[in-house]
Amino acid sequence: MKLSRIALAGGVAASTVLLIAGPAAAHVSVQPVGEAAKGGYATLNFKVPNERDQASTVKLEVNFPADHPLSSVTPQAVPGWKIKIDKSKLDKPLEVHGRKITEAVSKVTWTADDSEIAPGYFQQFPVSVGALPEDADQLVFKAIQTYDNKEVVRWIEEPTEGGEEPDSPAPVLKLTAAADDHHGGGAADDAKKGDDHKAADTAASAKETHAAASSSSSDTTARTLGIIGIVIGVAGVAFGVLAGRRRSA
Question: What positions does the domain YncI copper-binding occupy (predicted)?
Answer without folding.
Answer: 27-175
